[in-house]
Design brief:
The protein contains eleven helices and no strands. By secondary structure, the protein is mainly α. It folds into two domains: 1-42; 43-267, Orthogonal Bundle (MetI-like fold), CATH 1.10.3720. It is flat and about 75 Å long. The two termini are 36 Å apart.
Length: 283
């Protein structure tokens, strides 16, 4: 009963062949990794003087405070702005009024099509130079907010449309207005469906903060340049910076996994119980 009806289960020969492919792939990856390590060792990239900077308290504080902390601030401000903007645009695209729906559609399509780095440069020249009131930090935040907000707008819209139509019809039947149906009935259920996609977009936002390097914005990529210019250790610097990005993204992934099990799993229970026992799950 547990076997799939969509394809035949692999036989012994196929299983052996897949194992051979797996072993060969691992051998090739290990050989490529060993080649890279040996080449770096030949160039002296593993010498102690090139890595000593990462054990010096003053430089370590510089990396964590001026680099990692600023990156987290950029990502946090951008994520909050993108979620709010995406929610408004997503709901606006579902509006019955063309005067609301069409502008929201135009904003989403426009900022989804423009590369993030171009948005950063545009904001930097429009505000950071001409007016002198907005620095590179906020230029990055504005660019990431607009781009990721446009992407999240489609996520919110798809999440609302994924809620069974019977939920809205039942709400209308008891006399609720469309705004009440959206905010009280549809949106809370849709958010449970959208949580994994929202967290994934947060990871993308965090990584895209590195693009602020082109407009001299603060962050991990910004602190790397003074370090490798002083110690001539380009490879170690970027290995450490990449490791910090990996650690933070892994933490976000663990958070997404926990939230998905906590809320999306609950959504499955509600969907099953709603078929036979809707009166017991109605709040």
């Amino acid at each position: 009963m547990s076997e799939s009806i969509l394809y035949d289960a692999p036989g012994p020969r196929t299983i052996r062949r897949h194992r051979v492919y797996t072993v060969l792939t691992l051998v090739v990856i290990a050989a490529a990794f060993a080649f890279v390590v040996l080449r770096l060792a030949e160039k002296g990239q593993f010498e102690a003087d090139k890595w000593e900077v990462f054990t010096t308290p003053s430089y370590l504080r510089y990396i964590l405070v001026d680099g990692l902390l600023q990156t987290l601030k950029l990502a946090g401000a951008s994520i909050v702005g993108a979620v709010v903007l995406g929610l408004l645009l997503g709901i606006g695209k579902l509006s019955d009024h063309a005067v609301v729906r069409v502008p929201c559609w135009a904003i989403v399509e426009l900022f989804r099509a423009i590369p993030v780095v171009m948005l950063m440069i545009i904001f930097f020249y429009l505000y950071g130079i001409t007016r002198g009131t907005v620095g590179p930090f906020w230029c990055v935040v504005f660019a990431l907010t607009l781009y990721n907000g446009a992407v999240l707008a489609e996520v919110f819209r798809a999440g609302v449309l994924a809620v069974p139509r019977g939920q809205a019809e039942a709400a209308y039947a008891i006399g609720m207005r469309k705004s009440q149906v959206m905010w009280i009935v549809l949106l809370p259920q849709a958010i449970k469906i959208m949580i994994p996609a929202i967290i994934s977009q947060c990871v993308v936002t965090l990584k895209d903060t590195s693009l602020g390097y082109v407009i001299a914005a603060p962050g991990l990529t910004a602190v790397g340049k003074p370090l490798y210019l002083e110690f001539h250790n380009h490879v170690p610097v970027y290995i450490v910076i990449a490791a910090l990005y990996i650690v933070v993204n892994l933490l976000l992934t663990l958070l997404a996994t926990w939230i998905q099990r906590r809320f999306v799993g609950e959504q499955k229970v509600l969907a099953v119980s709603a078929v036979g026992h809707a009166d017991q799950t109605t709040v």
